[in-house]
Amino acid sequence: MAFPMHNYVLAIMVLAIIPIFEGYIIVNGVEGGAGITETTTPFGTLFVFQDPLTVTANRSSKLVGIAEGTSITSSVDGLRSISIAKLTLRLKHHRGSVSIVGGTHNVKPSDHPVVGGTEDFLFVQGYVTSSPVNLKGITVTYKIEFHLYWPPYAT
C-alpha cells in the first residue's frame, strides 16, 4: 500500500461526503440606521433570524425548510460575523435538522461545520456552504449547499 493507513481512511471519508440538497435562504431585511447596508453592519451587531429555505432563489418557490439562529458581526469592517444556526429540513427522503456554527463572510462563500443533527440527520458529519446570490435591496438571498456524511455507526 502506497499510503499510510490513516491517509487511506481519510480518502474514503472524503469520497463519502455527498451533497444531499441545495436550497436558498431568502432574508427579509429591515431598514437600518447609520452603518447598516445590505452587506455590512457595525461591529457587535446581533441579528436573530428565522427565514424560509426554498428550492429556488424565489420567495414563491417550494418551502423545504426553515433557517433559524443568530449572527454577531465580528469584524470592524462589518463584513464578517459568527453564526449559529439550526437548519430544519423537510425533504422527500430526509427530515430533521442540522446545526451549524462558524464564521460567515457577507459577500463571499463560507463553509460552516455541522455540529449536530436530529431525526434523519442524527450523528451526521460534514459542512454547509452559504454563498451570497443577491445582495441588492432590502431582501438578500443566500445559496445553501449541504455536504453531509453519515458515519457507519449512524445507520
3D structure, described in words:
The structure is a single chain. The chain has 155 residues and is mainly beta. It is built from 1 helix and 8 strands. Strand 3 and strand 4 (80-90) form a beta hairpin. The protein starts with a helix and ends in a 6-residue tail after the last strand.
Give a quick summary of the entry.
With 155 residues, the chain is mainly beta. It has one helix spanning 5-16; strands at residues 18-28, 46-54, 63-73, 80-90, 95-105, 110-117, 125-134, 139-149.
Total count of strands: 8
Rounded average pLDDT: 78
Unreliable residue stretches? 1-18
Integer-rounded radius of gyration = 17 Å
Strand content: over 45%
**What percent of the residues sit in helical stretches (DSSP H or I)?**
under 10%
Global morphology: globular
In whole angstroms, the N-to-C terminal distance is 29 Å
Strand order of the largest sheet: 1-2-3-4-5-6-7-8
Report the biggest beta sheet as strand number plus sense, adding barrel if it closes.
8 strands, antiparallel, barrel
**Can you count the helices?**
1
- Judged by helices, strands and strand pairing, the structural class is mainly beta
Element string (H = helix, E = strand): HEEEEEEEE
